[in-house]
Amino acid sequence: MADLIHRMADSVQHGVATIQAKSRTAAESSKINSQKGVLQTERARHLQELGAMVYMGIVQGSSDEAAIREKCSLVQAIDGQVKKLDEQLASLKEEEQAAINGRRVVGTCTCGTLLYEGERFCGACGKPVAATPATVSATKTCSACGAEIPANAAFCSKCGRKTADD
């Protein structure tokens, strides 16, 4: 009977941990998706303006190449920001799974995937972790929120703050 109660208590604790991890991920994902929406709207506006600039240049027989290049640079910068937000979303999902499964991040594979305690192979690229220790880098703690992040991370995947260059 005591064993049954112990297993039930463990199950309840796991359920609570799962709910906490999923709700934290949902809240943070919502913020990131909101930021992405703003950037995607801005990107669409810049692309529309770029199209108008190119069209007018063709119709008039001359175009302002410097203005077109500047507009292209703005779109590329936005694309880079969206890519970073997508990486943050992927990292949040990985952290959620780690929290649910109770595993700790121990490094990062050369492909960029987080590696968890007990893994012998990278789940994304299949590289053996133990056979190629050079593929694993240490982790560090975000000074803003305390999250464990890859040592080479430029931004915290939990709070989004720029990490200190130690």
Largest sheet: 2 strands, antiparallel
Overall tally of structural domains: 2
Helix % is 55-70%
Q: If strands are numbered along the chain, what order do they take across the biggest sheet?
A: 1-2
In DSSP terms, counting alpha (H) and pi (I) runs of 4 or more, how many helices?
Answer: 2
Shape: elongated
* Oligomeric nature of the chains: single chain
* Uncertain ranges: 131-137
Proportion of residues in extended strands: 5-15%
User: How many extended strands?
Assistant: 4
Q: Kindly report how far apart the N and C termini lie.
A: 54 Å
Order of H and E elements: HHEEEE
- Computed over alpha carbons, the radius of gyration is 22 Å
Mean pLDDT, rounded to whole units?
81
* SSE class: mainly alpha
Provide an overview of this structure.
This protein is mainly alpha-helical and 166 residues long. It folds into two domains: 1-102; 103-166, no CATH class. Helices cover 58% and strands 8% of the residues. It is built from two helices and four strands, in the order H-H-E-E-E-E. It has a two-stranded antiparallel ribbon. Strand 1 (105-108) and strand 2 (114-116) form a beta hairpin. Helix 1 (2-60) packs antiparallel against helix 2. The termini are far apart.
